[in-house]
Automatic annotation (TrEMBL):
<keyword id="KW-0732">Signal</keyword>
<keyword id="KW-0472">Membrane</keyword>
<dbReference type="InterPro" id="IPR011990">
    <property type="entry name" value="TPR-like_helical_dom_sf"/>
</dbReference>
<dbReference type="Pfam" id="PF07980">
    <property type="entry name" value="SusD_RagB"/>
</dbReference>
<feature type="domain" description="SusD-like N-terminal">
    <location>
        <begin position="103"/>
        <end position="227"/>
    </location>
</feature>
<keyword id="KW-0998">Cell outer membrane</keyword>
<dbReference type="Pfam" id="PF14322">
    <property type="entry name" value="SusD-like_3"/>
</dbReference>
<feature type="signal peptide">
    <location>
        <begin position="1"/>
        <end position="21"/>
    </location>
</feature>
<dbReference type="InterPro" id="IPR033985">
    <property type="entry name" value="SusD-like_N"/>
</dbReference>
<comment type="similarity">
    <text>Belongs to the SusD family.</text>
</comment>
<feature type="domain" description="RagB/SusD">
    <location>
        <begin position="291"/>
        <end position="573"/>
    </location>
</feature>
<dbReference type="GO" id="GO:0009279">
    <property type="term" value="C:cell outer membrane"/>
</dbReference>
<protein>
    <submittedName>
        <fullName>SusD family protein</fullName>
    </submittedName>
</protein>
<dbReference type="InterPro" id="IPR012944">
    <property type="entry name" value="SusD_RagB_dom"/>
</dbReference>
Length: 573
């Protein structure tokens, strides 16, 4: 009897095992960690996922590729072209030799690609999971999808500008793929168009979103550029006009914000002062502002452009009172914008030629925005208290990295938090012999002297005017293109341009004057097929740009691993 009972139990167990679905039996049901299935259930979870997109974009723009404080390898090169060259590796190092730096196997070529597709993959997950979700409200769904579509479009537009056509990935990936097919450049732009057109119907107007969040106007701004790339110039004009003519938008032409009462300033200067970037400060020109908040773990890094564009002035030498060389300056100070390292050295074309007859009147080239001289503050210097440039103390050996005009657009220039200053034993701020306030320095990744400590623009209305001028020009409406350019020049106190003189180079020059270092110049030049021409003409190392480099190469690792499909390489790589 006992044996029979054992036999029955064993048979029953065997039947269960035989009849069960093997796939279900082996399927894991996670209880204590996040997966795509349990990470996209609530509005809070979708917001957290999209916050990653904002952080990735901000990190890419601000840390110049270092992504939260690591090496800035690669992205610095996107700030060069006709506006700047590499100050740390002159004459023929990486930033000054695009032929050797941008190859199919180089790190920066792959970096841009990977960052973009990382963002696209995240956007695809959000879009797909929103379709599957029935727990969050309709309004939240609309907003989240609009943001995800915006980011996917932003990065596809970025990829198309740099590489031409790329593989289009529009679904959430559940397994590795090695069968990608490269779309054409137009198809890539068109996907960005489709995403943005839908996003525009889902996103709120700019006055209905918090500072730093994607709005309908941000999508309209980007789609203006996309329409231009597709040759749809009237559509581009219409999109830009929808932003420019919006009653809540407008160029800032009067003094405003945190330093409006200070003498010597102007509306253009006000745009870049602390707490003046967001619409909540009264700034009607801002479209999308990347956010920074001091001592907030959500913005633990700031904009590195002050570090990269300012000269390494604290290493500049002058003749000492004893006849030997001494440092011209005894520290890096708030008045000089912090600690520069001279890695992005603006070209002579930017510092001098591009301003033309308006050199002394254009507010964008004022002594507040581009400071061309400082007094020597080292008491041991023979020229102590005299001007470096005007009084002839600059040594030729310092002109490459240690001394050139100071671009102050991103520099806080005073008003740093109290704890960021060097202190005397009695707690007062250390000053130079000329009274400038000395900033602390620990390391390049965490130094208070290295970053801007303020919000910065990604898009502002001046850029929309420039895009509409480009669309008007290509739509054979030179008179209206000139009108848009002159709106910016009027604010800057620059002379008007004539419709008969309008061409794409004039618009690119105006973009340089208005938006210098706010955008990636190389991306714009590649979009227009002008990188090679203008870099060879205006960059002192322009000879090191290959004639094929109006596009980057497709990263070789992407071609190599794609064994079940074929991704063609760009010409002459």
């Amino acid at each position: 009897m006992k044996k029979l009972r054992i036999y029955i139990i064993a048979s029953a167990l065997l039947a269960v095992l035989i009849s069960c679905n093997e796939n279900n039996w082996l399927e894991e049901t996670p209880k204590s960690f996040y997966t795509p299935d349990n990470s996209y259930e609530t509005s809070t979870q979708f917001r957290q996922s999209l916050n990653y997109q904002y952080d990735l974009l901000r990190s890419f723009q601000w840390t110049l590729g270092g992504l939260k404080g690591g090496s800035a390898e690669g992205v610095i090169a996107l700030a060069l072209g006709d506006i700047a060259f590499g100050g740390t590796d002159y004459p023929d190092g990486k930033y000054n030799n695009f032929k050797a730096y941008f190859t199919p196997t180089s790190a920066p070529t792959l970096l841009f690609w990977q960052v973009a597709y990382n963002a696209i993959a995240n956007a695809n997950i959000v879009i797909n999971r929103l379709e599957l979700n029935d727990k969050i409200g309709i309004e939240d769904k609309k907003g989240f999808k609009g943001e995800a579509l915006f980011f996917r479009a932003y990065w596809y537009n970025f990829l198309a500008n740099l590489y031409g056509g790329v593989p289009l990935v529009l679904e959430e990936s559940s397994s590795p793929r090695r069968d990608y097919v490269r779309a054409t450049r137009n198809e890539t732009y068109d996907q960005a168009r489709l995403d943005l057109e839908e996003a525009i119907t889902l996103l709120k107007d700019i006055d209905g979103v918090e500072d730093g969040m994607i709005s309908k106007q941000a999508a309209l701004h980007v789609i203006t550029e996309v329409y231009i790339s597709l040759g749809r110039y009237q559509d581009a004009i219409n999109a830009a006009s929808a932003v420019i003519d919006n009653p809540n938008m407008g160029l800032m032409t009067e003094r405003f914000g945190s330093r409006a009462s200070e003498s010597g300033g102007d509306p253009y200067w006000d745009l870049f002062q602390l707490n003046n970037q967001n619409r909540s400060s009264g700034n009607r020109e801002s479209i999308l502002v990347l956010q920074y908040e001091y001592q907030n773990s959500g913005s633990s890094y700031g904009n590195f452009y002050s570090r990269c564009t300012l000269p390494q002035y604290f290493n500049a030498k002058v003749e000492g009172k004893d006849g030997k060389s001494v440092l011209a300056f005894t520290g890096f100070t708030a008045e000089k914008g912090g600690r520069g390292i001279g890695v992005i050295h603006p070209t002579d074309y930017f510092f001098n030629d591009v301003w033309g007859e308006d050199f002394d009147t254009d507010l964008r080239n004022s002594s507040n925005m581009i400071v061309r001289d400082f007094k020597i503050d080292n008491p041991e210097a023979k020229g102590f208290g005299e001007w470096m440039v005007k009084d002839g103390w600059v040594q030729e050996g310092d002109l490459l990295r240690n001394w050139y005009p100071f671009v102050m657009k991103f520099s806080r220039r005073g008003g740093f938090p109290d704890e960021l200053y060097e202190k005397n034993t009695d707690g007062t701020i250390k000053t130079t012999a000329l009274g400038e306030h000395i900033l602390a320095y620990t390391s390049w990744t965490g130094s208070p002297a290295n970053i801007s400590y303020k919000d910065e623009y990604l898009f502002r209305l001046a850029g929309t005017y420039l895009l509409r001028a480009e669309a008007y020009l290509k739509n054979n409406q030179s008179d209206k293109a000139a009108d848009d350019i002159n709106e910016l020049r009027k604010r800057a106190h620059a002379s008007e341009v004539k419709a008969s003189n309008m061409n794409i180079d004039l618009i690119l020059d105006e973009q340089m004057r208005e938006l210098y270092f706010e955008d990636f110049r190389v991306v714009t030049l590649m979009r227009l097929g002008k990188l090679v021409e203008r870099t060879q003409e205006h960059n002192p190392r322009g000879e090191n740009v290959g004639n094929n480099q109006n596009l980057l190469p497709i990263p070789y690792p992407e071609i190599e691993r794609n064994i079940f499909g074929k991704i063609e390489q760009n010409p002459e790589y």
